[in-house]
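Reviewers of the previous submission asked for a worked example of the structure-prediction workflow described in the proposal, so we include one complete record here. The input consisted solely of the amino acid sequence. No template or homolog information was supplied to the procedure at any stage.
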Amino acid sequence: MKRIAVGIFRSFFLLALALPAFAQTDKLGVGDAVRVTVHQQPDLTTDARINERGVIAVPLIGEVKVAGLSQAEAAAAIGDSFKKGQYLKNPQVTVAITTVRSRQVSVLGAVARPGRYPLDDTSSQLADVIAAAGGISAAGGDTVMVMRDGKEERVPLLGKGYALKGGETINVERAPVFYIHGEVARSGAYRIEPNMTVMQAIAAGGGVTPRGSDRRLKLRRVGTDGKLVEKDASLKDTVKADDVIFVREALF
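From that input alone, the workflow returned the following structure tokens.
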């Protein structure tokens, strides 16, 4: 009996380690999986997932709404249903969460490890979740899109904290880039820094080659009407997202 008791304790301990922190007072939510147990009624033991209507199906009594309730409150609601249906006189019901999904968020985009991450009292801030996902990749930008209550909200990563809620989706956007070609050491796409000038853009590309001239610059940019516009550029011009800078050869 002692070995059995130790084994049961060990199983519950490992389950507790595998789950995100979820106190008895925390509320159940859509997507969470729970186990309903009725004392001395093994046939009524049920494993169920809370559906989009916030309910679970329980033998004999049918659907019971548990979303928004704590585990103890959900157990009481199920017990009351057993009594009202005259199935059991004094049911002793327990509800235990087995998989937490309502308190998880999805992290997508330019992070090291996209995926689902749990929220708890110490890691519900946007910065904490981004850190858990391995941080922003080299291609990532300074803002993220948070899908909250069906609406997209743009959130800057710098500044005050931003608390997340379960079920939200965080998409770390890629940083805006510019393109530089022609007589530069390293043609290609580069991240735009705040208030970046053409001179700084050329420096990011390794500088002008001996054959090139920083006085013979062309800049191609999409105008407000969606059409591509090409113009001469100076070193002091400000670079915008998706600009194409072309460094031409020197005349002599």
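The longest strand covers residues 212-222. We consider this example representative of the routine output the project will generate in years two and three.
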